[in-house]
Write a structure and sequence with these properties.
Structural class: alpha/beta
Largest sheet: 2 strands, parallel
Shape: globular
Order of helices and strands: EEHEEHEHHHE
Strand order of the largest sheet: 1-5
Distance between the termini: 13 Å
Strand content: 5-15%
Number of domains: 3
Protein name: NAD(P)-binding protein
Organism: Apiospora kogelbergensis
Number of helices: 5
Length: 144
């Protein structure tokens, strides 16, 4: 969830806004806070009989926040945090290359485009992301 902190830079614009790669605006994806990642890793490492010690190698921990969030969820959270109305600017699929080219050189820009498309509707990671069998839930919410 900390990725939304980059929106702070655009909150000082005449019309505060943030960019969202999560399209459509009501599409939810799992998000988790770094604090929950740390707690979960520490608990796994310190627990007796931990699956990490059971010989399953590699052991993959599916970790999501308490619920999935969409752009429509992030917008009011940013408005609450800043005390201002905030505009959500969706980065559509056909805009991804230009969007990432502003921040990264090749081949990194193309890799970010590929990664982003993978978790959006119809992407190769969407099913795995939303259908994780052994998922643990973090405690921290988006902040509303």
């Amino acid at each position: 969830m900390e990725n939304w902190a980059t929106a702070i830079q655009t909150m000082e614009a005449e019309t505060p806004y943030f960019y969202s790669l999560i399209c459509p605006a009501d599409y939810t994806i799992p998000m988790v806070y770094v604090r929950d990642v740390g707690r979960t890793c520490a608990a796994q490492l310190l627990s007796a009989g931990s699956p990490l010690r059971s010989g399953e190698n590699p052991y993959i921990v599916g970790l999501h926040g308490p619920e999935g969030y969409s752009t429509q969820d992030v917008q009011p959270a940013l408005e609450h945090a800043t005390g201002n109305r905030v505009e959500a600017r969706l980065v559509q699929d056909d805009q991804l290359e230009d969007f990432f080219a502003q921040a990264f050189e090749e081949p990194m820009a193309s890799l970010f485009v590929e990664m982003t498309r993978s978790f959006l509707p119809g992407g190769v990671a969407e099913k795995d992301m939303n259908g994780v069998a052994r998922v643990q839930r973090g405690e921290d919410t988006l902040g509303l």
